[in-house]
Amino acid sequence: MVYLFLILIVLASVALGFVVLVQNPKGGGLSGSVGGFNNNTMGVKQTTDVLEKGTWLFAGIIAVLALTSTLFLKGGKSTIDNSLIQKVNTSNSAPLSPKGK
C-alpha cells in the first residue's frame, strides 16, 4: 500500500513540475499553447487560470497523499544491543589525563 502512495506522489510531483514549468509569469511563452489551445479558442487569461488551478490541485493532492500515507507506515522498532553496553567495564577505570601535560 505504501508503494501505491509513493507512485501516486511521484506522478503528482511530475505533473506539478510540468504545470509549473509551463507557466510564464509574464503571461506569454508556452501557457498559450498547452494542449492545443491557442488564443482564439480559450484565451491567455483563461489558460493561466487553468494552470494556476492545476498548480493548487496537484499541490493539494501531494499534501493529502503524504499525510494519508503515514497511516500505512509501520512503526519502527528500537533494537538496541544492550549486551555490548553491559560488557564494557567502566566502574574501575581511571580518568584519562590530557596529553601534553
Description:
This protein is mainly alpha-helical. It has a domain at 1-23 and 42-72. 52% of the residues lie in helices and 0% in strands. It is built from three helices and no strands. It has helices at residues 2-22, 44-69, 82-87. The termini are far apart. The mean pLDDT is 75.
Largest sheet: none
Shape: elongated
**Average pLDDT, all residues:** 75
> Any low-confidence stretches, pLDDT <50, length ≥5?
none
Helix run count: 3
Structural class: mainly alpha
The topology string of helices and strands comes to HHH
Question: What is the number of beta strands?
Answer: 0
**What is the radius of gyration?**
28 Å
* Residue fraction in strands: under 5%
Distance between the termini: 62 Å
Residues in helices, as a percent range: 40-55%
Record keyword descriptors for this entry.
101 residues, mainly alpha, elongated
SSE layout and pairing:
Elements: H1 2-22, H2 44-69, H3 82-87
Outline:
The protein is mainly α. It has helices at 2-22, 44-69, 82-87.
